[in-house]
Amino acid sequence: MMKQILLSGVIGLFLTLIGTPLLIKLLAKKGYGQYIRDDGPREHHSKRGTPTMGGIAFILATIIAYFLSKLITGYSVTFSGLLVLGLMAGMGLVGFLDDYIKIVKRRSLGLRAKAKMAGQLIVGIAFAVLALQFPDNRDQTPASTRLSFITDFGWKIGPVLFVIWALFMILAMSNGVNLTDGLDGLATGASVMVFGAYTFIGVWQFQESCANAEVLTNPAACFEVRDPLDLAVVASALMGACFGFLWWNTSPAKIFMGDTGSLALGGALAGLAICSRTELLLAVLGGLFVLITMSVVIQVGSFRLTGKRVFRMAPLQHHFELKGWSEVLVVVRFWIIQGMCVIVGLGIFYAGWAAIK
């Protein structure tokens, strides 16, 4: 069973390693290059024209890796896995339309705000509604109407509130990754770490699943998750695909992921958290995305209330660039912060399980 996890990761890595340079050549040939803000760090002006929409590479690689791993091992796909992949692809499509309009139509703001939000809402609502369908033989659906941290807790919030909560998570994570994607390799490297954490969580939940309660030493400590192993397969495919993309996306980047990639990665993270019943834990595991998003909220709030800025520039990574840090220094130090968030998050996950046990 673990073979499919290894296969999906390796195939995802291989496909983006060889596929991304082909995409770079195609995008460069068509002249689909990145616009750079004039008010940002001057060093970024040299990046103008670098091919973007690179998210296409790891979205396709992840999907192909998932289905190939199933084909090779003979295991069936699951609704949980398909829903997370569908959410990733749907959000990626919205981002692709945004990038396409920016680059091909030469409209610097891309999709109009209402159209972009409408696209995200349609994809998010479709995921949330479908995630409460398809019960298995234990009456487990891919998602639960309870809030979750390590596992589900509290009262059921009902399907309507669940859809609203799921939408909030999807939009928050998508925009969090989008804001983080401002320096070469920053968002990609941070995402690799979180997807690695979800691969581990999926394997652990599978080993301690309530479906195996009869062989567990303490059935009371089991995880009520519909398809934990398949979520690990999806997370592994994403981790491998992002790793391969990082080879080309790290400084100096030969390609950017664009909104195509950042919205897709944010959607995948939210989908994995919702389906693995670790919704609130995602705020710890993806701590860097939360930190960078909060820097924008603080900057905008402070300027509107007092007319003063807290940071030289938001998101946070550009503040440190304007203070004189090199781009590579900012990226590596932020990766260290993200690594610490993943370690703390996994520690909390294990401690929570041990406490129940």
Give the structure's gist in a few sentences.
With 357 residues, the chain is mainly alpha-helical.
Number of domains: 1
The major sheet is characterized as: 2 strands, antiparallel
**Helical region count?**
12
Strand order of the main beta sheet, please? 1-2
Q: Helix- and strand-based class?
A: mainly alpha
**Termini gap:** 25 Å
Transmembrane segments: 6-28, 49-68, 74-97, 117-134, 154-173, 185-206, 231-248, 255-274, 280-307, 328-356
Family: Belongs to the glycosyltransferase 4 family. MraY subfamily.
InterPro entries: Glycosyl_transferase_4, PNAcMuramoyl-5peptid_Trfase, PNAcMuramoyl-5peptid_Trfase_CS
Cofactor: Mg(2+)
What topology does this entry show?
Elements lengths: L1 H29 L24 H19 L5 H25 L9 H19 L14 E3 L3 E5 L1 H23 L5 H22 L20 H22 L8 H18 L6 H4 L1 H20 L9 H7 L4 H30 L1
Antiparallel strand pairs: 1-2
Helix pairs in contact: 1-2, 1-7, 2-3, 2-7, 2-8, 3-4, 3-7, 3-8, 4-5, 5-8, 5-10, 6-7, 6-8, 6-12
Pathway: Cell wall biogenesis; peptidoglycan biosynthesis
Protein name: Phospho-N-acetylmuramoyl-pentapeptide-transferase
Keywords: Cell cycle, Cell division, Cell membrane, Cell shape, Cell wall biogenesis/degradation, Magnesium, Membrane, Metal-binding, Peptidoglycan synthesis, Transferase, Transmembrane, Transmembrane helix
